[in-house]
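tool_call: predict_structure(chain=1)
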Amino acid sequence: MSGHDTQVHSSEAVIDNGKFGKRIIRFETGRIARQAAGSAVVTLDEDTMLLSATTASKNPKDQFDFFPLTVDVEERMYAVGRIPGSFFRREGRPSEDAILTCRLIDRPLRPSFVKGLRNEVQIVVTVLSLNPAHLYDVVAINASSMSTQLAGLPFSGPIGGVRIALIDGQWVAFPTHSELERAVFDMVVAGRIAGNDVAIMMVEAEATTHTIDLIKGGAQAPTEEIVGAGLDAAKPFIKTLCEAQLELAKVAAKPTAEFPVFLEYQSDAAEAVAAKVKDTTAKALTIVSKADREAKLEEIESGLLEALATEFEGREKEVKSAFRSLQKKLVRERVLREKVRIDGRGPRDIRPITAEVEVVPRVHGSALFERGETQIMGITTLNMLKMEQQLDTLNPETTKRYMHNYNFPPYSTGETGRVGSPKRREIGHGALAERALLPVLPTREEFPYAIRQVSEAFGSNGSTSMGSVCASTLALLNAGVPLKAPVAGIAMGLISDDVDGKTEYVAITDILGAEDAFGDMDFKVAGTKEFVTALQLDTKLDGIPASVLAGALLQAKEARLTILGIMNSAIDTPDEMSLLAPRIITVKINPDQIGAVIGPKGKVINEIQDQTGAEISIEDDGTIYIGSTEGAAAEAAKARVMAIANPHVPSVGEKYNGTVVKIANFGAFITLYPGKDGLLHVSQIRKMHGGKRIENIEDVMKVGDQIEVVIGEIDEKGKLSLEPVLADKPE
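tool_result:
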């Protein structure tokens, strides 16, 4: 659309959720961001509003051997009527939610561009307004697809994205945050229209923190069959969203421009490579060890480059790509025809697994999980709830009690590289492992701790994210976290092709890194022995038959149960908590007493913390968490808090071990317990020193001294007069 053509076009998708009401998604173009190649404003129910703009560079970056697509999601705090909480009061780097949304957009859109495109394409989504009840991530998938569809790029969209949740036995599209609290399962599904059907391209799904309680209350558990039913339920919604985008594109899209396409290799290179090394490559691909196999393939590749150097002068890149393509073809053929994989396993075989706990001293919980060459260490740290992560995002959640961090150092694949702040992939993997475990974590009331789980990928060859789920379950149990059920995960692949005239599908369990790249679909499934807790699926196929997907999901369950059995033999119940982890005691007081416990400017609470060595945090409802690595310190702090919150009425004759807090010329003030002082008169102090006259009290007593006293009298105002407890003189 040119700058002068200000005609505004729009279309609508009406999503009917039956008794859960309708949702209206409106697509509009021509009013905002007209200089972008394609721009669209998408609203959900008129009060959540996102702008997506897609632009492509004029010249291709032909030095790249990949498609340079970048997706950015800009969360603006004004969208929820807030000023950012950072020092500069301005949005900083993207939040985890924004990064995960970028990944949700990139995954279905990237494979929809023409193969070989090398022009930079940038999609920027800005959240302009957000109803706090809504989740914007799926709206962003549709907005990105719409602006890209309008931009005149070689893009085989549109892509429709929908979140559906299983609530009260019904799949509800675009659920609100409050509706999700009643959901057993929550899925984001993206796909496009393929003939009369919808081809699913991406799924990101998880059980919720309420799932286990809902199942106990009689709700349907999210088993593999339910997941399959959810994918079918998403299709009509995706179709409606795609049709609305097509309707707008018909009147407002730019014609697709000509873009140079850089194919990885020409057919003559493929033929020459196959003729030279097909048989030796096929043989090399049967070597079981990854290192030996890669060394042999490198040897074949360098020989190949030498042999074809004159014939394909200046086309080394093409020869390398054709060789890679040949490997892919051979691996796939062997799986489809012989049902044998690169490392000699059958389709359902899992690599050798070992699981052990307590592998690192001093940490609160640790575990090492190995599956073939994939090696993950899980480390658990427990602390007071005040250490939970504070969130300043568009999400209504303000704190995060369970934090899962995933680290992927370059040496895990035997390479060098940048080490430092986490990349998008690491954030995505950490979030997937986090979601897999959230449904089985104990509640705050059951376990009042902030929990940080770190997954260190020390060796990688196939699904470190699912290895992280297994290592985390082991480490959490080792730390003494009472999980509702252990969780394990497995990565699956699917290879499909025409074999002797009919389409064959082979699902493969526990994929290697190489199989991940060579397959048509990969999906990761984590769960307990009863149900699925998290699932991530990406596919290059135009629609997978439901029966094939169901079979693959059940094959994943079979593997999951095997892994759970191995993990169970390493640790099957929560261990005793580490002596180095804080012991947390929870006490409840009347909220009216909070001020008394804190004291003026925090004087009382700080005094208790300093004197006992325990840490104390107080919630607005009167819940007090007292933590210390020394059990006795926590108990002492609890006693002092309770003495203030449930004040004891002192009576004459009671003995106390008091502390001198102030000295005056007429005596000393002694604290019996927080908030209760009494006066030890100078005449009583004399008794402690054989009745001798005392010129200066500070000569015999100083602030901080501990003195055993007894209450001598209480006047009508409640003031206490104290007497010393004198040691009995020997007869």
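agent: DSSP finds 16 helices and 29 strands in the chain. Proceeding to next step.
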